[in-house]
Design a protein that fits this description.
The complex is a heterodimer of chains A (683) and B (199). Chain A has 683 residues and is of the alpha/beta class. In chain A, 28% of the residues lie in helices and 17% in strands. Classes of the chains: A alpha/beta (683), B alpha/beta (199).
């Protein structure tokens, strides 16, 4: 028997692989099957019964999501039996559903609403009292109205399978079955927001978004997320100038259809703590100023002091802005430029700083070694991909770093660089595991590179990859970083890196520092330097600044970001920058004109043309351009210190997240959880 | 059946006694490595016995830890099966069958006895001796009406007989289990009607 089977759906013959479900075969034949519990990225539950179809010679309708096709099966999705069956299922589902659509946040984007309209009957024959269910606490992100629950268990399966934090369950049974977390603890997952999308009804909705807007009054802009270096595809929903919510978009090679909580719920940070006009420091206080006044001051400080001026690019900034900054610094003849504000010792060809195996490539990997990386906090969606591969089986995972729960079985083989040296010397058996596996992977985190011996760690990891035949992958934490490295925002000849800049600022060797969205540097470390802050939020950088030039956040400009695997993607403008804030590149262009070193582009297209000339792969949107093979950089030898991870405070990694009260609530809930665990009274 | 919730007051911790622990380990050893979760029901049952007829929340966690299961999975099992009592019960826990055959044979009168002697369902008498719950069919319809008290069936009850049993249990007197109308097991009432020999 061949692997392909012939199936007839509504008179259309399709050929499908053995093991395909009837539902998939129907979809292939173009027949629409209604469903609630079935989700293509989750296991099959088969408990909603909405997907019933008629199969010839079967005694009764079958659940198409759970039944594999058989040779020469004849399926009908349009017969009277199917119509009656669907109406019956829908009538039962609606028996205990409150029909409170007018006050339900799911209204307008509700599967139950849509399918009741499309496949339901016209009336219910149920005359008794409806069931009512107590609402459950699931934390600051997920609001529950459990009376609306139809028990599809998608959220339970998501928590168990994808997020790897099996905290949601169905207690009780029959009519009294209830979805809850253990003792109503808040969800301890970085991906919990996805259950809101998965819920086909209004039982799990977004708590921060509750009662604020209706889907049809929102303007939807498809763009790219910058909360981590993954470049998750998102949709920003705006009402007027205000961001109301952020939803994931499907991109099979990047985020599938998931989104981390930080990316999803950071939207209130876009509306808070905004820099909407220029400020200058007078008598130790920041006072509002016009662009002209601000530029006057910057001009007076920077003129003729090109080589005493340094620039640091931050974590959320775009490629265009960084290119313009680099252009400005080149024109100022200053070699002091750095985009690695965390001090990561990254150098060498493009292959040295990319996730070379690609995110989707994780699924083909045969073994994995994590070096100083905690992907669960650094890129939760990527972590879900590793877990997906882990669940497929036969995937040994080892990590060097502090032992932590990554949601999959991980062998922590050591804490620091000495273990890496052991691996290289062949004293650690996991090197053999890597060698014998197909497509082994090594992932290096930023925490391992920001140390003094970061260059040595990078070199050792590359060497280990070469020795074991593994792919070398770097997991970045900043959305801006790869573009910055691509565009060469690194110290030139005799230039200072971030650490040297701070010393130079103290010694007086540097007089001016331009912080372009760089907020992770302690203000005091910049000495008496004159600090120009260009950014969107009043955060650490702005507090230290002598001049603030307000710029656009990631939702307010059309800009290029390159994710950790080297995929260039372009954001779309969902709103205009607030007040007098301007797009980043325009600020550098205007400043260059003031300094009589006018940058050679007057519009975004001209800037992009110049940028594509210096980094052609940025023009190839949504493509991964294969990078040059990694090369071991020079170094001063490995240390022995234990690795620390780049992200410890998941909810506060950048200025937008720190401005968000939702993120603060999440951190509080998390803190309460940890506290409770500490006293042993928590579930 | 109605919504079942964990009791509000819970002991601060739970641990198996040494004997129960070694028994539990024996149960776990019945299942292959990685399938320990299969032992959840016997372990919950033993914990319920040890805790005096009900399952405290710390016991659910304790067992989940023993079996390397998420707490919520263990809670799902404990709340699914009605044989697990989530609130304390009396020393003699009466499960009164109210399903059709027992009801036709006078279960309502037995309920009245319970209400009179114990109180409403779920309540425990002040001396801690008795509590009762109406349950679905216990499979002894031939001897209806019946109740189960702890591990024993008491069948062919009348209100008077039942009251007597409850009184005796409360005072610690010996009580006969099984049918209470002097028939043996489920033999016909009033002696044999068939198979009496050659006639």
């Amino acid at each position: 028997m061949s692997d392909n089977l012939k199936v007839t759906v509504d008179g259309i013959e399709v050929e499908v692989e053995a093991g395909t479900t009837i539902m998939q075969a129907c979809e292939k034949a173009g027949a629409e099957i209604p469903r609630f519990c079935y989700h293509e990225r989750l296991s099959v539950a088969g408990n909603c019964r909405m997907c019933l179809v008629e199969v010839e010679n079967a005694p009764k309708p079958v659940a198409s999501c759970a039944m594999p096709v058989a040779p020469d099966m004849v399926v009908s999705t349009t017969s009277d039996t199917v119509k009656t069956a669907r109406e019956g299922v829908m009538e039962f589902l609606l028996i205990n559903h409150p029909l409170d659509c007018p006050i339900c946040d799911q209204g307008g984007e509700c599967d139950l609403q849509d399918q009741a309209l499309g496949f339901g009957g016209d009336a219910s024959r149920f005359e008794d009292n409806k069931r009512a269910v107590e609402n459950k606490n699931m934390g600051p992100l997920v609001k529950t109205i459990m009376t609306r629950c139809i028990h599809c268990t998608r959220c339970v399966r998501f928590a168990q399978e994808v997020s790897g934090v099996p905290e949601i369950g169905a207690i009780g049974r029959g009519e009294d079955m209830e979805i809850t977390t253990y003792l109503e603890a808040s969800l301890d997952s970085e991906m919990s927001g996805n259950v809101i999308d998965l819920c086909p009804v209004g039982a799990l909705t977004s708590r921060p978004y509750a009662f604020t807007a209706r889907p049809w009054e929102l303007r939807k802009t498809e763009t790219i997320d910058v909360m981590d270096a993954l470049g998750s595809n998102i949709r920003v929903d705006m009402r007027g100038r205000e961001a109301m919510r952020i939803m994931p978009r499907n991109h099979d090679d990047v985020n599938e259809e998931w989104l981390s909580d930080k990316s999803r719920f950071v939207w209130d940070g876009l509306n808070k703590q905004r820099l909407d006009r220029a400020f200058i420091r007078r008598d130790g206080k920041l006072v509002p100023a016009s662009w002209d006044e601000a530029f006057d001051l910057v001009e007076s400080k920077l003129n003729g002091k090109g080589n005493k001026t340094a620039a640091i690019a931050g974590d959320l900034v775009c490629a265009e802005g960084q290119f313009a900054l680099k252009g400005l610094m080149d024109a100022l003849e200053s070699p002091h430029v750095d985009c690695r504000q965390d001090g990561a010792k990254i150098s060498g060809p493009r292959g040295n700083y990319l996730f070379n195996a690609s995110i989707a490539g994780i699924e083909e990997a045969g073994a994995l070694l994590l070096i100083g990386s905690n992907p669960r906090l650094e890129a939760p969606v990527l972590n879900a991909r590793i877990r997906k591969r882990y669940l497929a089986g036969d995937f040994p995972i080892a990590a060097i770093g502090e032992a932590t729960n990554l949601t999959y079985e991980t062998e922590f083989i050591g804490a620091g660089a000495d273990t890496l040296a052991d691996l290289l010397a062949g004293k650690q058996s996991f090197a053999d595991t890597l060698k014998s596996a197909a497509n082994p992977m090594i992932i290096v985190g930023q925490g391992a590179l920001t140390r003094d011996d970061g260059a040595a760690v990078l070199a050792s990891a590359i060497e280990l990859a070469e020795k074991t035949g593994a792919s070398f992958n770097m997991l970045h934490t900043a959305a801006a970083r790869v573009a910055g490295l691509d565009l060469g925002l690194l110290p030139g000849d005799g230039g200072f890196d971030v650490a040297a800049m701070q010393e130079a600022a103290h010694s007086g060797a540097l007089e001016n520092i331009i912080l372009y969205g760089a907020d992770e540097i302690a203000g005091a470390s910049l000495g008496n330097a004159f600090v120009v802050y260009i950014g969107s939020h009043g955060d650490r950088g702005a507090h230290r600044a002598d001049v603030i030039l307000p710029s656009a956040a990631y939702t307010e400009k059309q800009a290029t970001y390159v994710n950790t695997e080297g995929r260039a993607q372009m954001t779309e403008q969902a709103a205009t920058p607030p007040g007098e804030a301007r797009e980043d590149w325009k600020i550098f262009r205007a400043l260059s004109a003031r300094l009589d070193i006018t940058l050679p582009y007057d519009n975004l297209n001209a800037l992009r043309a110049a940028m594509y000339e210096s980094a052609p792969h940025l023009a190839r949107l949504d493509e991964i351009v294969v990078a040059d093979a990694p090369q071991t950089p020079s170094h001063d030898g490995l240390g022995t210190d234990a690795f620390t991870y780049a992200v410890s405070d998941f909810y506060f990694t950048n200025p937008i997240a720190r401005a968000s009260t939702i993120m603060a609530d999440c951190a509080k809930a998390k803190g309460a959880r940890i506290g409770a665990e500490g006293t042993g009274t928590d579930g | 059946m109605s919504v079942r919730r964990l009791n509000e007051e819970q002991p601060s911790e739970f641990a198996f006694t040494p004997e129960n622990l070694s028994w539990a380990e024996g149960q776990i050893a019945k299942y292959p490595e990685g399938r320990q979760a299969s032992a959840i029901i016997p372990l919950l049952w033993q914990a319920q016995k040890q805790a005096g007829g009900w399952l405290p929340e710390p016991a659910i966690r304790h067992i989940a830890d023993m079996l390397d299961m998420p707490y919520i999975r263990a809670l799902e099992v404990a709340t699914f099966y009605t044989m697990f009592n989530l609130s304390p019960v009396g020393e003699h826990f009466v499960q009164l069958c109210g399903t059709t055959p027992c009801w036709l044979r006078g279960a309502d009168e037995l309920k009245d006895v319970c209400r009179k002697m114990i109180g409403e369902q779920g309540e425990i008498t002040e001396d801690g001796k008795l509590s009762w719950l109406e349950v679905e069919c216990l499979g002894a319809c031939v001897n209806a009406p019946m109740v189960q008290i702890n591990d024993d069936f008491y069948e062919d009850l009348t209100a008077k007989k039942f009251e007597q049993i409850l009184n005796d249990l409360r005072q610690g007197n010996e009580v006969a289990t099984g049918p209470q109308n002097s028939r043996r097991a489920s033999e016909p009432e009033g002696g044999l009607t068939v198979l009496k020999g050659d006639k």
